[in-house]
Design goal:
Elements (H helix, E strand, L loop, with lengths): L1 H8 L2 H10 L24 E3 L3 E4 L2 H12 L4 H15 L9 E8 L4 E7 L21 H6 L9 H12 L4 H14 L1 E2 L2 H9 L1 H4 L3 H7 L12 E2 L2 H13 L2 H4 L1 H14 L5 H6 L3 E3 L2 E5 L2 E5 L6 H12 L4 H4 L4 H21 L10 H4 L2 H9 L38 E6 L5 E7 L57 E4 L5 E5 L7 H13 L5 H6 L3 E2 L8 E2 L5 H9 L15 E5 L5 E5 L7 E4 L2
Antiparallel strand pairs: 1-17, 2-10, 2-18, 3-4, 3-11, 4-7, 5-6, 8-9, 9-12, 10-11, 12-13, 13-16, 14-15, 16-17
Helix pairs in contact: 3-4, 4-6, 4-7, 7-11, 15-17, 15-19, 15-20, 17-22
The structure holds 6-diazenyl-5-OXO-L-norleucine.
Amino acid sequence: MHMQNKLNLATGRWGRAMALLLGLAVPVITAAEQPILDANSRFHPVYSPSGMVVSQEIIASRVGAEILSLGGNAIDAAVATGFALAVTLPRAGNLAGGGFMLIYLAAEKKTIAIDYREMAPAAAHRDMFLDAAGDVDNRLARHSLQSSGVPGTVAGLLHAHDNYGVLELKQVMAPAVALARNGFAMSVDLATSLDSRYDRLTRNAATQGYFYKPDGKRYKPGEQWVQADLAATLRRIAKGGRDGFYGGQTAALIVAEMQRTGGLITRADLDNYRVVERAPVCGEFHQHQICAMPPPSSGGVHLVQMLNILEGWDLQALGHNSAAYIHRLVEVMRRAYADRSAYLGDPDYFAVPVAEITDKKYAAVLRAGIALDKAGASAKVQPGLELDPDSLLRAQPTADRESTETTHFSSWDRWGNVVSSTTTLNFGYGNGISVTGGGFLMNNEMDDFSSKPNTPNVFNLLGGSANAIQPGKRPLSSMTPTLVFDNSGVPLLATGSPGGSTIITVVLQTVLNVLTFDMRIAEASSVPRIHHQWYPDKLYYESGISPDTLTALTAMGHTINAKPRVLGATQSIQKGPNNSLLGASDPRRQGAGAVAEP
Ligand code: DON
């Protein structure tokens, strides 16, 4: 009894440090055992005694929270937020992009992964972005209509709603329709973002018309912005479901746009788009279960792989963001991204060796190869499995899966259902080309394929045959919607981030901040991050990493990027004390919001 009391005192960071000093066993603690507010933190989450929605755009978060208060579950809230983001956060929220959604179904104690990633059109082919000299034509791959994959977002959101929501679709979509039809006051974040992209976005007449004033001038913060064509498209979806986008007038508008400027997507491609429900990739880390998105995302596989390697060291003893800790992170990231370049692709076309990469024995081999006192060199680190990627290519795509079909948002309801979803057009505002009459932007996700072996894409990511372009295939992604559970399967955390290639390492550090360094989610989302991705062989860092630490890392042989950069923008929910929820939007970007169910 006496010992039990002592252990109960050893909660929170200081209690754990004390317990270590006294030589007591350090108990595994969770936020659920802590007081609501952590007086030792400089960062504080939003508290909710019931449900919560967190997204990059606060109006969209409010929409989701309102849906919760109307009796919707976390899935309804996520779908409502997803459609609202297509209106209020057009640089990443979308109708004609794609994404991934992890859903924890409380009643069944089951996690599912919904893949609504774009698919390459039937007319796509391996060398479609190569010019006459055999080099990648980046304009074609990033800024043309050929850069668009067949959109998955509408099918994905509808799949989630049809199968797991409880409210009517019309009710769930009503707020998005109203926001587009009636308009909303442009935020500082949105006005600034559109201002900074003026040149790129006014190259396309339809985009200019939708995102700037009729006289070509820019909107100022606070001015009302109405999107009538987008409202009409949303109404068609609310009324007709999948047919409201992949059929009828919307499909005709998409196909007409493709035909006008050389896009590949046909009516048949739209008909053939399918959502795939996949099993999440799960791993264990110090008595916690981590579940994240499986291929065609590389996120879950490498998150689990990196945690497996890191589990072999006492990271807490090294200290958060110490040189010794950052060194280990870098070496682990280096190896994971080397593997990513060879072994990751669409699992329907390539037999991704998920079990091998996430095997703890493989992690032990990789860990043993890491020198603790000096930096490794990417040139000496190669993909680590003894497997020829070409031997994993599937002769026939596996098309027989169950099928009814970058920004992150998380939702959690009072029944314990949890959603973690990341969606994107790839670049901010995709390829900048709008569907005339439809009111929405097209994605440029085709650049996530490896257009040519050993030629980096926009995120400097390398790839080979596993991620080569093929008709119907989904480009490899880094999006990493993630759920963390305690050792009895109770969900503790939902998180995810935008940031291209940095997404996986941002999510990794968020999970470590919570599980290893006992941070509450607001602090875990705020503290400085680092990133390494094998190539370029550079350590990227955020301001706030101490210059002394950078000096120590340089002395170990690490090449530090010349300047700090901002890494990621998480939108997370953590289980709090007494069945409460703690929400946190990353402070790195303006305009986001964690909103408690009213
Ligand atoms: O799927 C991917 O990995 C990329 N298309 C994500 C792009 C992204 O995160 C851009 N946002 N910052």
